[in-house]
Write a structure and sequence with these properties.
Number of strands: 4
Organism: Candidatus Amulumruptor caecigallinarius
Low-confidence stretches: none
Order of helices and strands: HEEEEH
Pfam families: Gp49
Number of domains: 1
Strand order of the largest sheet: 1-2-3-4
Number of helices: 2
Strand content: 35-45%
Distance between the termini: 26 Å
Protein name: Type II toxin-antitoxin system RelE/ParE family toxin
Structural class: alpha+beta
Helix content: 25-40%
Radius of gyration: 12 Å
Shape: globular
Length: about 80
């Protein structure tokens, strides 16, 4: 799945969704469970993965999105 994200110019929204502020969500199903992994694009080429979680509701939990935003900011500050 990660290879799909790295190599595809235009992603299928079934697997990848833009959330906000440069943060994307990779959707993965495994063992009957839905998982979400947040990532950003760095220089348009490198995929940087952040926190992930098992999705239990239709809407992305706000606290998970806030955590991803914080990690994104820390990533760019440390570059």
């Amino acid at each position: 799945m990660l290879r799909y994200v790295q190599q595809t110019e235009r992603w299928n929204q079934k697997f990848v969704k833009y959330l906000r502020d440069g943060i994307f969500e990779l959707r993965v199903e495994y063992g009957g469970n839905a998982y979400r992994i947040f990532f950003i694009l760095d220089d348009g080429n490198i995929v940087v993965l952040f926190n992930g979680f098992m999705k239990k509701t239709q809407k992305t939990p706000q606290q998970e999105l806030e955590k991803a935003t914080k990690l994104k900011e820390e990533y760019y500050e440390s570059k």
